[in-house]
Design goal:
The structure is a single chain. It contains 14 helices and 15 strands. With 388 residues, it is α/β, with parallel strands linked by helices. The protein folds into two domains: 131 residues, Aspartate Aminotransferase, domain 1 (Alpha-Beta Complex); 225 residues, Aspartate Aminotransferase, domain 2. The strands form four sheets. Strands 2-10-9-8-7-3-4 form a seven-stranded mixed beta sheet, sandwiched between helices. The protein has a four-stranded antiparallel beta sheet with strand order 11-12-15-14, with helices on one face. The chain has a two-stranded parallel sheet with strand order 1-13. Helix 3 runs antiparallel to helix 11. Bound molecules: pyridoxal-5'-phosphate (PLP). The site of pyridoxal-5'-phosphate has 13 residues, from helix 5.
Length: 388
């Protein structure tokens, strides 16, 4: 069945943070503006997921969740089939989203005052969660080589204070969509071994890779890292289920798993019934939908990147995964303040401010093109009219 990703769906007044908070956050009205910020998509979830919720609604009882065998089986076969990674059911814990999983991990593997390494610019909530847990953010600024990000472990090694306990790694990287190669992951693991760091690997964008690119899930690529690694995965990004707030933390090492479990226990760990059922249905029946989605997104990406090329001073980082364009506007000569004034007030596009992703993001904007192609074309026209 062909999925119609061009179907217009109004999200205004639907408790969507993307559309219903844009005016408050960016001063862009949803009436004549475009919501192209937070990472969720303007598409309906796979039919199987919606059917699953319909069945739950018809049953009508929404009590505590029990028996996660169905979900664990679905997760295990997805990891095996899609990522060549054989996991055991006992290795995973299910959390209320990966933001929560990161917070629990920080408490499990570090203490207040410890430093946590992140490769900036990176998903803004990393720093927020680290600081909210009274740990310190240690930014390792990404370098750009051949137009894409790479990390510089030599420099990072020289800058360590000795208080670093955790490396919080984003794979694929958000923003910029970089897929890390096996040899890069090996280097990273060696670095973590040399400095005795627990490696938290957030793979939430792993299933949104473009054709010609293959995500390397960390422990399939570097199995020897298993005694220091926690891998985090989720259906919420690829299948557009973010409101379901659930994800899995996969920890093969019993000692690390035990520590995670104690910290998880301290926050209350009863799974979210709706999230669990949505995720199970997505892993079991969502493969074809995801295939069509990625093909649709690739066309949007092409259209968006071509449009960006036509605007003097704009450069879009070539994306290997995900739908978050990362655009450098330095060569326009505009200051960030002036750039964002024009973006929000003239173009009326609500998009993520680059500096919120940390050092290195200052002259960038992140624009989410997971929407109808007609909206992507509209956005390009607005950008051309405002900035050309
Ligand atoms: C890298 C990364 N990790 C985690 C999250 C948030 O995950 P969750 O919604 O499961 O808390 C996002 C959301 O955009 C993300 O980009």
């Amino acid at each position: 069945m062909l999925i119609d990703f061009d179907e217009p769906i109004n999200r205004i007044n639907s408790n969507s943070i993307k559309w219903d908070a844009m005016e408050k956050l960016y001063g862009v009205s949803p009436k004549d503006g475009l919501a192209m910020w937070v990472a969720d998509m303007d598409f309906k979830a796979p039919e199987a997921v919606n059917l699953c919720i319909k069945n739950m609604s018809e049953h009508g009882i929404h009590g505590y969740f029990g028996d996660d065998t169905g979900y664990k089986t679905a997760l295990r076969s997805w990891m095996s089939k899609k990522h060549n990674w054989e996991i055991k059911d006992s290795w995973s814990a299910e959390t209320h989203g990966l933001g929560a999983a990161i917070g629990i991990s920080l408490r499990a593997y570090s203490k207040p005052g410890d430093e946590v390494i992140v490769f900036s610019p990176v998903y803004h909530s990393f720093a927020r969660i680290i600081k909210a847990n009274n740990r310190k953010v240690k930014e390792a600024k990404l370098q750009i080589e051949n137009g894409i990000y790479k990390f510089d472990l030599d420099n990072l090694g020289k800058s360590l204070s000795g208080n670093e306990k955790i490396m919080l790694f984003c794979s694929p990287h958000n923003p910029g969509g970089r897929i890390w190669k096996k040899n890069e992951l090996e280097d990273l693991v060696k670095f973590c071994e040399a400095h005795n760091l627990v490696l938290l690997c957030d793979e939430i964008h792993a299933d949104l890779t473009y054709p010609n690119f293959k995500h390397n899930t960390l422990l399939a690529a570097v199995p020897s890292a298993k005694n220091r690694t926690v891998v985090m995965v989720s259906t919420t990004k690829p299948f557009n289920l973010s409101g379901g707030e659930m994800g899995s933390v996969i920890i093969p090492d019993p000692d690390l798993r035990n520590k995670f479990d104690l910290a998880h226990e301290a926050t209350g760990k009863m799974p979210n019934r709706i999230g669990m059922k949505m995720a199970e249905a997505a892993y079991l029946y969502g493969e074809e939908w995801l295939f069509q989605l990625v093909n649709y997104l690739e066309k949007n990406k092409f259209c968006f990147e071509q449009g960006i090329k036509s605007i003097k001073g704009f450069e879009s980082m070539p994306l290997q995964s995900t739908y978050l364009a990362w655009i450098n506007f330095e060569k326009t000569g505009l200051s960030p303040t002036e750039f964002y004034r024009l973006l929000f007030k003239e173009a009326k596009i609500a998009a993520n401010i680059g500096s919120s992703f940390g050092s290195g993001g200052e002259m960038y904007v992140r624009i989410n093109f997971a929407c109808r192609k007609a909206i992507v074309e509209d956005a390009i026209e607005r950008l051309q009219n405002t900035f050309s």
